[in-house]
């Protein structure tokens, strides 16, 4: 299986370049992609992207841009010019922001996948209500996914619990990149809307973002191998 077929994206949430690269050196770029998020990028900057590209990885730069349209378009362009495979913005930044980002990539012929975060997987109904959104997470995800698609984005970040609804609303080819993946009997940590790896694939996730269940495991490679096995031998009904 090459990374082009693998749905797995390992979240390299580490506080230093060295720690992230130690993990990356254990991983096989033919078996997964990697994700660089806010902590690692803020500490190490573009050098981490370069180092991961040098090791053959496709990189999802997960900085979740959210600002006025011109600022977000510039940030998305800067990310794409570093050659990342995927970059994201917050869908709640609205139509003009997402369209500006899309147009900036198109104008510069940059082929990076642009996706939008819908509702963070750490949030549930009460969290949405506190920030003034009186919808169920599922309804809000559907609404923002439809908007992101109308703005020309390639997919969304959502929980795998909403992947099926997003597939119905936006189609098979629209990417459903889903964090909040937790193998059976593992801690949910700060995640709230979770599914197992095989449950997520069965629900229609196109990509599974997995961090702590691998990176904090006693034996990260054994944890990854267990997840891969669970994806090829799915339990009945999945
Ligand atoms: O809604 C979202 C959007 C992004 N994330 C990111 O995914 C990983 C998940 O890590 P775990 O350790 O597997 O929980 C992390 O980098 C988040 O920033 C998310 O969890 N939910």
From TrEMBL:
Catalytic site positions: 62, 64, 67
Catalytic activity, reaction form: orotidine 5'-phosphate + H(+) = UMP + CO2
Signal peptide: none
Any one Gene Ontology cellular component term annotated for this protein: cytosol
Enzyme class (EC, first level): lyase
Keywords: Decarboxylase, Lyase, Pyrimidine biosynthesis
CDD domains: OMP_decarboxylase_like (cd04725)
MF terms (GO), sorted A to Z: orotidine-5'-phosphate decarboxylase activity
Keyword Heme carried by entry: no
Gene Ontology biological process: 'de novo' pyrimidine nucleobase biosynthetic process; 'de novo' UMP biosynthetic process
Positions of substrate binding: 13, 35, 62-71, 121, 182, 191, 211-212
Biochemical pathway: Pyrimidine metabolism; UMP biosynthesis via de novo pathway; UMP from orotate: step 2/2
EC number: 4.1.1.23
InterPro entries with a match to the protein in the record: Aldolase_TIM, OMPdecase, OMPdecase_AS, OMPdecase_bac, OMPdeCOase_dom, RibuloseP-bd_barrel
Orotidine 5'-phosphate decarboxylase domain sequence ranges: 7-227
Family designation: Belongs to the OMP decarboxylase family. Type 1 subfamily.
Subunit structure: Homodimer.
Function: Catalyzes the decarboxylation of orotidine 5'-monophosphate (OMP) to uridine 5'-monophosphate (UMP).
Record-given protein name: Orotidine 5'-phosphate decarboxylase
Source taxonomy: Bacteria, Pseudomonadati, Pseudomonadota, Gammaproteobacteria, Oceanospirillales
Gene name of the record: pyrF
């Amino acid at each position: 299986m090459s990374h082009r077929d693998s749905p797995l994206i390992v979240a390299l949430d580490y506080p230093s370049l060295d720690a992230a690269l130690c993990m990356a050196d254990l991983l096989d770029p033919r078996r997964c992609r990697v994700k660089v998020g806010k902590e690692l990028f803020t500490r190490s900057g573009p050098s981490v992207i370069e180092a991961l590209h040098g090791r053959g990885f496709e990189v999802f730069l997960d900085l979740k841009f959210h600002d006025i349209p011109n600022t977000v378009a510039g940030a998305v362009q800067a990310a794409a010019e570093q050659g990342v495979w995927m970059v994201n913005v917050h869908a709640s930044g609205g139509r003009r922001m997402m369209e500006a980002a899309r147009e900036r990539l198109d104008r510069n012929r940059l082929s990076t996948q642009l996706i939008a975060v819908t509702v963070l997987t750490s949030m549930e109904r009460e969290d949405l209500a506190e920030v003034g959104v009186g919808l169920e997470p599922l309804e809000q995800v559907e609404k923002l996914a439809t908007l992101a698609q109308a703005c020309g984005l390639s997919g969304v970040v959502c929980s795998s619990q909403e992947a099926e609804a997003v597939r119905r609303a936006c189609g098979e080819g629209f990417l459903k990149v889903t964090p909040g993946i937790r193998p059976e009997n593992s801690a949910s940590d700060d995640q709230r809307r979770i599914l197992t790896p095989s449950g997520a694939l069965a629900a229609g996730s196109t990509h599974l973002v997995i961090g702590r269940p691998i990176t904090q495991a006693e034996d990260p490679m054994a944890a990854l191998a267990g997840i891969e096995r669970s994806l090829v031998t799915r339990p009945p009904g999945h």
